[in-house]
Amino acid sequence: MKHTLSILFYVLICGFIAYYRNDITSFIIENLVYRKENIIFTTNEYSKSENYNYVQITNDFEVNNKAEILNAIYTILDSGMNEFVFYCAKDYDMCQYDVEKLSTNENYLSVLNNFVHPYNSYNKLYISTNNMGKIKISVDKLYSNEEIKYINDQLDVIEDTLLTSQMTDVEKIKTFHDYVINNTVYDQKRANEIESNTQGENTLMSHKANGVLTNHVALCSGYTDLMAIYLNRLNLKNYKISTINHIWNAVNINNEWLHLDLTWDDPVTDTNENVLLDDFFLISNNKLVGKNTKQHNYDTNIYKEIANH
After folding, report:
1. Mean pLDDT by 10-residue block, N- to C-terminus, for the chain (309 residues)?
2. DSSP secondary structure letters along the chain
3. pLDDT at 29
4. Whole-angstrom Cα distance, residue 299 to residue 184?
5. Predicted local confidence at residue 32, as pLDDT
6. With b meaning 16 or more CB within 10 Å and e meaning fewer, what string describes 155-189?
7. Region at 292 (left for phi over 0; alpha for psi -120 to 50; beta for the rest)
8. Residue 176, C-beta contacts closer than 8 angstroms, at least 6 positions apart
9. Which pLDDT does position 1 carry in this prediction?
10. Cα–Cα distance measured from residue 240 to residue 249, given in angstroms and rounded to the nearest whole number
11. In the chain, what is the greatest distance between 2 CA atoms, to the nearest angstrom?
12. What is residue 9's predicted lDDT score, i.e. its pLDDT?
């Protein structure tokens, strides 16, 4: 009798295993072979946690399509975390292919830097996947902690010196706009090197905010990062707009999105005269389009907020 019951028990066990073999195999692989990492999600003080038409903050890290992959990566960048893991949904068969395609298209991913605080933006983004749908993100930040402290200290001095509590946001932005332009020249030498593809190391760091403050030279990315950092200090919703060869700021003031381009307000002259303009200071989208400049032909599908104004 006992022998018969034992045989019956084993038959039932084998039947159970056979029926649920796919689920059991997935459980073993996911939790033992490719153990899911429960990394605690945190945010730093520079997280904006803003939703835009192009990307949104998410708390669902099991992705089902390309849009959700972008939202997951954007959320990780915005958080300021250096490393995080998320996963493909079980029925998302193209997930690994889509992730790899995204990771090899630097221009596609670099747009995400425009929506996060410059301090949380990346210099290099490393993305790895495995056959079980595990996606690991590692972030090499553009700004070091030492650079962030230096920039913040410098901005504290500038604000204490030039601004008053009675100023409106527009007045504060104009004062800062003028200060940066009056104390900075466009890095034409570096721009020529980039255009001719002969650039080496940017020793003056004109592409970054700290380089602008230290060496008083800037590329468009340096002007734009510095202004973005300042706009975030004013708690104004903003992002950067980029084309193939240019980048500038967009900011929301009183529920209106406006363009702000310090690079074009600090033109290079034949006489090397330091000129201050306000042709691109808080202008509407219609006014920008009316200027008909090729370098401002941006993708309206990415920056819908300002394109629709």
Report:
1. 54 52 51 55 97 97 96 98 95 94 85 98 95 94 98 98 97 98 94 85 93 97 98 98 96 97 90 84 97 95 94
2. -HHHHHHHHHHHHHHHHHHTHHHHHHHHIIIIITPPP-PPP---TT------SS----S--EE-SHHHHHHHHHHHHHHT-SEEEEEE-TT-TTHHHHHHHHHT-HHHHHGGGGTS-GGG-EEEEEEEE-TT-EEEEEEEESS-HHHHHHHHHHHHHHHHHH--TTS-HHHHHHHHHHHHHHT-EE-HHHHHHHHTT-----TT-TTSHHHHHHHSEE-HHHHHHHHHHHHHHTT--EEEEE-SS-EEEEEEETTEEEEE-TTTTS---TT-------TTSSB-HHHHHHH--GGG---TTTSHHHHT-
3. 47
4. 29
5. 43
6. beebbeeeeeeeeeeeebbebbbbebbeebebbee
7. left
8. 158, 162, 163, 227, 230
9. 56
10. 5
11. 106
12. 52
Could you identify the residue written with the tokens 């034949």? Answer: 270
Q: Provide the token pair at 30.
A: 């996911």
What amino acid is encoded at 113 in this protein? N
